[in-house]
Amino acid sequence: NVGQNPWPGIIFDYYLPHDLSDSATLKLEILDEEGKLVRSMDNKRPEDFKTWPGGPPQPRVLPSKPGLNRFNWDLKREALPAVDGIFVFGGLDGSTAGPGNYTFKLTLDEKSAEQEAILLADPRIGAKAEDYARQNIILVQIEEIMSEVQNSVSALRSVKTQLNHSLELLEGGKGSEDLINSGKEALKAISSWEEK
């Protein structure tokens, strides 16, 4: 007989009177002490989700069967945005939240319920509350910068696709040579930026 280790993080139990799988959206928001969103998830599987090695992690989906449901927050913040096909060493999981008070807000339609949870520090580490607070600020800043870079690359790839399409439409048109040349220069600049 083999035992099963407990799930990591904070375990969250909730009761649903009926099955929500195909109808209403059940949403869980995890908020920090200042009311800032740390993580959110719902009971809907994203239809257009795709991953690859070094790509985004499989999204967590809230169970929504009738009766008692159990979910665990793995203490991770929101995953970072992915750039299609790009390998990110170490993955795109959000950083681990530090010790503190958190609010679990479960919403179904217009009704919501909240539950407080306290995440305690590991006593073996011996760090002070200020150390965790400083670490948290730095991790959030890093994630914001990474998100900005990832979103910028994705946006530029979208512009590049649109520009290629526009150039195809202009090809062979009279009087569009200057516009085509400008478009090709813009494509070169985007490609050069992306490859750095």
Strand segment tally: 6
Oligomer: single chain
Q: Name the shape in a single word.
A: elongated
Strand arrangement within the widest β-sheet reads 3-2-5-6
* Strand coverage percent: 15-25%
N-to-C terminal Cα separation, in Å?
54 Å
Radius of gyration: 23 Å
Low-confidence blocks of residues: none
H and E order: EEEEEEHH
Q: What level of helicity do the residues show?
A: 25-40%
From the helix content, strand content and strand pairing, which structural class follows? Answer: alpha+beta
Largest sheet report: 4 strands, antiparallel
Number of helices: 2
**What does the average pLDDT come to?**
89
Structure characteristics:
single chain, 196 residues, alpha+beta, two-stranded antiparallel sheet, 6 strands
List the helices and strands and how they pair.
Layout: E1 10-16, E2 26-31, E3 37-42, E4 67-73, E5 100-108, E6 111-119, H1 129-170, H2 177-195
Antiparallel strand pairs: 1-4, 2-3, 2-5, 5-6
What does the model show?
The chain is an alpha+beta fold and 196 residues long. It is built from two helices and six strands, in the order ββββββαα. Helix 1 (129-170) runs antiparallel to helix 2 (177-195). The protein is elongated.
